[in-house]
Amino acid sequence: MCPDSDIVAGPVSDVISWLGAHKEIASLQVAVCDLNGILRGKRIPVEQAEKVLDGNIRMPLSIVGVDIWGEDIVGNRQVFESGDSDGYCIPTGRGMIPINWTSRPSALIPLWMFEEGAKPFLGDPRQALAHVLDRYRAQGLRPVVATELEFYLIDPEPDHAVPPISPYTRKRIDSDAILSIDELDDFGEFFWDVYAECAKQDIPADAAVAENGVGQFEINMRHSADPLKAADDAVLFKRLIKGVARKHQFAATFMAKPYGTRSGNGFHVHFSLLDENDNNVFDNGTAEGSPILARAVAGLLAGMAESTLAFAPHFNSYRRLRPDTHAPTSVSWGYENRTTAIRIPGGDNTSRRIEHRVAGADANPYLVMAAILGAALYGTENKLVPPAPFQGRAYAERFPKLPADWASAVNAFEDGQIIPDFFDEKLQSMLVACKRQEIAGFASNVTDFEFGAYLEIV
Predict the structure, then answer these.
(1) Of 50, 157, 244, 311, which sits with the fewest C-beta atoms within 10 Å of its C-beta?
(2) Are 265 and 363 contained in the same domain?
(3) CA nearest 190: which of 263, 125, 112, 242?
């Protein structure tokens, strides 16, 4: 735990004592993470904290499978075949997470879902990742992960993306100031608060950079040997960024492509594998890495097209996956090549790792990590062999392609041959049904651009 953290995750009595010392907290939020990466739950009085911490709160299992608008999925088996039964909502062990950017201080208790008999509900995305990690543990391996999340600060007033006004110059920013120290300084108060809140929530925020887009930034997380916590951190970080942005009169978005012609928001995941002696099994003393690394890469490539829905889950996601945009479009890998989907970074051999570059910042971190680590495990278990690494521009036609659109990705996920190796059938069917309902929602709405293009022309 971060020494500056305000989180208390010990015995129930310790958490209750912490609440007693923080009289300013008048209410609590209790929530699970749904398939879209959105926290859903309840606001409760502080007096009910012990009930929650003891695992005595229930919510419908179907709550993790609602669509992006929070609507039940028509035909969802969790609703109609089971009578929309409740599950047990158990604290994740994260403890109380203080929230200080709202009008009054509160705290969040993150939960995950179990069925009767303390059986993990594998439709819960956090449980899906935990299930993959259990399989690694059985083989004496521990994934070490680090994440990079990009986001845009935008003006909160318009109903479309508009760059924010600089707190320093009082002028609207208008340039793609990549790696600009001055732009970080202009938004310095925002970043001071972000890092302060990350420390309180035990989120290991590392370097911040100004990215390719106007008002776009990236904050990296330090590497962690606990991927479940790393995914928790990413979910909480996204909510934290939005909350602190509102405090500073901005809006923040993790949309994959808020501007049609500017850089998209990515969610890159770096990982290596440690054995029981804490040795990096991807390192064999060479720049190429070990045979285990090659097998993991082969598994990632084999599962990439059918798991693209986990990396690009929304209509807007596919605006990002376009050639020559620093986002991949092909099933490819290479050393120090940012045009490939899988990049093997250079540097010290003992730090040999894999960077997975497909996911957008709009994706659910639990599903992203479960898909990445699950496919890598599939490759190592089956001793798959990857094609030769690629050098150069990887947008060439010779490579197999990622699904080019949302519907194709849903079909690939539903029909995937490798998907059932790491995603339970409950989650697979719930996500497919969710996305098909969202596709229908977008298809039934005519955009202003579409109306203007065709109104008097055709």
Answers:
(1) 157
(2) yes
(3) 242
User: How far is 82 from 426, CA to CA, in rounded Å?
Assistant: 13
CA–CA separation, 283 and 279 (whole Å): 8
d(CA 191, CA 79): 43
- The answer to whether the pTM exceeds 0.85 is yes
| Secondary structure of residue 234 in the 3-state scheme | helix
Q: Any residues with CB less than 8 A from the CB of 306 and at least 6 apart, and which?
A: 412, 413, 415, 416, 417, 418, 419
Taking only Cα atoms into account, the Rg of the chain, rounded to an integer number of angstroms, comes to: 22
Examine the domain organization and report whether 49 and 172 are in the same domain.
no
Residue with the bigger pLDDT between 302 and 173: it is 302
| Residues contacting 170, CB < 8 A, separation 6+ | none
Domain boundary residue among 121, 147, 179?
Answer: 121
Domain span holding position 147: 133-423
Give tens-digit pLDDT for 335-374. Answer: 999 989 999 999 888 899 999 999 999 999 999 999 999 9
Low-confidence winner among 167-171, 206-210, 233-237, 367-371 (lowest mean pLDDT) = 167-171
Q: b or e along 115-147 (b: 16 or more beta carbons within 10 Å of the residue's beta carbon)?
A: beeeebbbbbbbbbbbbbbeebeeeebbbbbbb
The reply to whether 92 and 184 lie within a common domain is no
Q: For position 304, which CATH number holds? A: 3.30.590.10
DSSP letter at 72 equals P
SS3 of 174, please? coil
Residue type, 217: F
Residues 247 and 339 in one domain: yes
Q: Could you give the CA distance from residue 91 to residue 101 in angstroms, rounded to a whole number?
A: 23
| 440 within some domain | no
